[in-house]
Amino acid sequence: MKIQGVAYRSVWVDPDDGFSVHIFDQTRLPWALEVLRLTGCDEVAEAIVSMKVRGAPLIGAVAAYGLALALRVDSSSDAMERDAARLASTRPTAINLRWAIDRMLTRLRNTQAADRVRVAYEEAGLICDEDVAQNEAIGRHGLALIEQIANAKRAKGGEQTVKLLTHCNAGWIATVDWGTALAPIYMAHDAGIDVHVWVDETRPRNQGAALTAWELGSHGVGHTVVSDNAGGHLMQRGDVDMVIVGTDRVTRRGDVANKIGTYLKAAAARDNDVPFWVALPSTTIDWTISDGLTEIPIEERSAAEVTHVTGRASDGAVTSVQVTPDGTGAANPAFDVTPARLVSGLITERGLCDASAAGLAAMFPDFA
């Protein structure tokens, strides 16, 4: 995607700078566009934990490069296994992280130590290229859904704008490029379809208000930020034609783990007959588990993310302020699980399918 007309991916390697890995510091967006240079495994791990880099597919890609950086220091098998475990432990919910590390190890365990650095960079590059291709395909398949809504509106006359609601950030900065939930929206906009996006603020880290709004604005897509509690109201008024979200893990029967608050949007969508679609690459499917409520680990993050908010003051300084009384505790589950029965369908790189064991098995017979 582009920023001020310049094409970027969300992670890239600079061969002229010691093969360092570069990412955007997402904790600085939307107020500043800062590039971080990562040179070692510990720096990559810290960037993931602190959410300087985030988004399930992107975390996996950056962690893959993190292992390549670690191998530059010590390419022995013992060190490789230790560093891989370190990277895999940084975030528990997103399955792409574990998938990427396992894929790297599968390739590297069968590689001589002297060749591991070269092979690691090659494999991490393949992971990135495949992610871009998968997300572009997701965009095309999701575009068909938006086109159906647009065609139905044209046939009826009257209001022509396709109104979409999304939660958290599932755009290009959550992946290597294109995004998952936002990819169909970008393609619809580029195809000339009149779309408007309701952007949930996504407390407590406000990834919708900060990241999704920044992305959509940079691409020229019409959007409005709304409080997290406004989605149901908008659906009741007929102001949402479709909800589309990303996900950090999907079980083999179609349960979906996504940013906290997603379940409530799905419940409101079901009550108001609004289609609720989830966009994901196949790398986000965890074929080893079935029941999302009992088997997906839910990351518990710092209470400070709830008790404090970060923003830009009138003098331009970015600062954090406390919004709760002194001594008041806070719980901060980062994700929730939406049962498959509330999901209208899944948008994958291979096409659309039911959020069910049968639907996923039919779409991915080679994995199921």
From TrEMBL:
Documented EC number(s): 5.3.1.23
Keyword Isomerase: yes
Binding site for substrate: 54-56, 91, 207, 258-259
Catalytic residue positions: 248 (proton donor)
Domain of life: Bacteria
Function: Catalyzes the interconversion of methylthioribose-1-phosphate (MTR-1-P) into methylthioribulose-1-phosphate (MTRu-1-P). Also catalyzes the interconversion of 5-deoxyribose 1-phosphate and 5-deoxyribulose 1-phosphate. Part of a bifunctional DHAP-shunt salvage pathway for SAM by-products.
Full protein name: Methylthioribose-1-phosphate isomerase
Lineage: Bacteria, Pseudomonadati, Pseudomonadota, Alphaproteobacteria, Acetobacterales
Gene from which this protein is expressed: mtnA
